[in-house]
UniProtKB/TrEMBL annotation:
Presence of the UniProt keyword Transferase in the record: yes
GO molecular function, one term: methyltransferase activity
Organism of derivation: Kaistia defluvii
Record family assignment: Belongs to the MT-A70-like family.
Pfam family, one: MT-A70
Gene3D superfamilies documented for this protein: 1.10.10.2830
This protein's UniProt keywords: Methyltransferase, S-adenosyl-L-methionine, Transferase
Entry protein name: N6-adenosine-specific RNA methylase IME4
Length: 405
């Protein structure tokens, strides 16, 4: 058989009754739409090619024989456009794929390079990797769904992947099933009883939730020890990243992505009562992180600690997150003062928007430490809820490194 182009293989082949009907139609009416070749590979028409061979309309094995040549045309990128965009457009209009199926295509796309015939006039268009975000946009699915589908492709059995491609199993359910041993995945899929599959998925999710709860309980106990008292030293700079508790619509079903899964959280009322003013010098500046959803709470906490809001800096992220009214791609670093703290000298202010990549959960970019150090190089500094040590800074919080560590 003629080889299939990698772009064509992004989409699953048709099978079963649908393929049998295509064979019968071509046997009765002939092949009416030509098969497109790019670099000797089938770019569009894999199903028509297979069906034509099954119907005896095309007889060549691995080359295009003269008698079959009328069924093939050559795709020329310079004239016919971009081969990847062509394949996606054709299949998106031709097929009725659900979101999970499109996510699987996008995941495959983000695993390959944008190649094809790039000779001659196409020399400027060298192969480049397709990012998850770009692949998601092309297939009209979220970047998160693409990531979920990639997990299925990486850890799922062939049977499980095939089930998602067919539209029999959602990509989110498949991602849970992919955590099982391969043999167990095959056993679940071979039965293909939807109720049984749902029960297995629910069991996996319940187990993961129980593990997260157990970890939170242990961290809660450690936090109690850490929070007995704040340091006795006074600071001119306090850098705070509170363990906000954001209440979902339902704590029974909406906790899967909650911050509680990563660290113990604290209610706004209790944060307001935290005696941060006790460690603040008479003249002190507070740099205070807030998400869009917790902005009102952050301002309330800032005021409760004895600081007056002055301004803020925006962290522009390199990837999108969740949100109810909009999908967030930024966080706010609020600036508040108490006493008489000098603002930066004219001409030395940083821009209010800092673009920086997202690191591990809740970690903040180095650029914001550098901003604070540039503004106040000599004031004693402390970071609340610190995750790592930084020269010249004290640290406090559950994950703060021990002195001298």
């Amino acid at each position: 058989m003629l080889p299939f182009h990698a772009f064509a293989n992004l989409f699953p082949l048709i099978e079963g009754v649908a393929f049998d009907e295509l064979v019968a139609d071509i046997a009765a009416r002939g092949l009416r739409e030509p098969i497109l070749l790019l670099d000797g590979q089938i770019l569009d028409g894999r199903n028509r090619y297979r069906a034509s061979r099954a119907a005896g309309v095309i007889t060549s094995e691995d080359t295009v024989e003269p008698k079959d040549a009328r069924h093939f045309v050559r795709f020329i990128p310079a004239a016919d456009g971009d081969p990847l965009e062509f394949v996606i457009s054709k299949n998106m209009h031709r097929r009725h794929m659900d979101e999970s199926q499109r996510a699987m295509v996008a995941a495959r796309l983000s695993n390959i390079s944008h190649g094809g015939d790039r000779s001659g006039e196409q020399e400027a268009n060298l192969p480049v990797a397709v990012t998850r975000a770009a692949a998601g946009n092309m297939l009209k699915v979220s970047e998160r769904s693409v990531g979920t589908a990639r997990a299925v492709l990486s850890h799922g059995s062939g049977e499980l992947i095939h089930a998602v491609d067919r539209g029999d199993v959602s990509v989110t359910a498949a991602a849970d099933l992919a955590s099982l041993p391969l043999a167990e995945q095959r056993r679940v899929i071979e039965g293909m009883d939807r109720r049984a599959v749902s029960a297995v998925v629910k069991s996996i999710r319940d187990e993961k939730t129980a593990e997260k709860k157990a970890k939170r309980a242990g961290r809660e106990a450690a936090l109690a020890v850490k929070q007995r008292a704040l340091p006795e030293k006074r600071y001119g700079v306090i850098y705070s990243d509170c363990e906000w508790r954001f209440e979902p619509f339902s704590r029974e079903t909406g906790m899967d992505r909650a911050a509680d899964n990563h660290y113990p959280t604290t209610s706004t009322n209790d944060l307001v009562l935290r005696d941060v003013g006790k460690i603040a010098a008479k003249d002190c500046v507070l740099f205070h992180w807030a998400t869009a959803a917790m902005l009102k709470a952050a301002l309330r906490v800032m005021e409760g600690w004895g600081f007056e809001y002055k301004s803020h800096v925006i962290w522009g992220k390199d990837r999108i997150s969740t949100g109810y009214w909009s999908r967030n791609k930024h966080e706010l670093l609020l600036i508040g003062t108490r006493g008489n703290v000098p603002a930066p000298a004219m001409g030395e202010q940083w821009e209010s928007l800092i673009m920086a990549p997202v690191g591990e959960h809740s970690a903040k970019p180095d650029a914001f430490y550098e901003l604070i150090e540039a503004y106040f190089p000599n004031l004693p500094k402390i970071e609340l809820n610190a995750r790592r040590a930084r020269p010249g800074w004290d640290a406090w919080g559950l994950e703060a490194p021990e002195v001298g560590a």
